[in-house]
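Tokens help. One example:
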Amino acid sequence: MQKIFDLSQPLNQDCSFWPFYPPFEVKYFKRKSEHGVNAQYIQTSNHMGTHLDAPRHFVTNGKTIDQLPLEWLWGPGVIVDLSDALDELDIFTPDMIEERVEVREGDILFIHTGWWKYSFLSPEGDEEKYIQRHPGPHHSIVPWLIEKKIHVWGVDMISTDHPMNLPIGRFLGKGGLEHWQRVRAQVERKFGADQVDTLFPPEAYQLTHNALFPHDCVHVENLGGAIGDPRLHNRRLTIGAFPWLFKGGEAAFCRAVAWIDEENIEAAPKKEKKAKKEKKEKKDKKK
């Protein structure tokens, strides 16, 4: 038997929405007392809650949601846990991923940064932290994902790109609240002002979207739910991300899930055991 885990964030009108995009709106247009039935109407962008971006989001003639093969959206993969190594505006690399888990060719790869905790409906929700100060990948992740022939990857953050490669760190609030200036100043303190343009060059703007979609490497954003369950981390799993069959859709809400054999669910993977042992040895040496 297999146990299924939901890796999705809940979605309603209270959820954070992407800067410059319309929010999620919902209302009843029929009520049981008057019409004999309850029915709702929603108006929203596709980029709310847990959702899957298709190549059409950035590529004029790219694949749309309905053109993504179902085989890409379900199969073997891993959820790598980087949460202990990441803080506000930090960078993660392919090496950091491969130090913790084996990523095989064609895997579905989900990355747990721990940032889902700050999403709007979470008990620890902090909208500014979630949107403006999440970590992100080093630009070397692009050739690495292509080399691994990965079609689907995902993150528990509002974007797969670092804020400095997004409007957030480049022009959000320009001429007003100047959010981008605060983000850049924090990044300069973290990495050094002389390193900012090297780490986040102009050509890296929305890199994981612009550079990966032409290769049919798509992603899920705003993962949540059981993504923080340590039983799922750094081990082989079956993973799925299922959008509705949206013909012509450049993106779509999706339900992300993971399956694991119940008899193996409590068994810590070898790399995780090794990492814990190394951490203990380092601690002992400091003593």
In short: The chain has a mean pLDDT of 93. The first strand starts at residue 2 and ends at 6. Residues 157 and 171 are 20 Å apart (CA to CA). The longest helix spans residues 270-286.
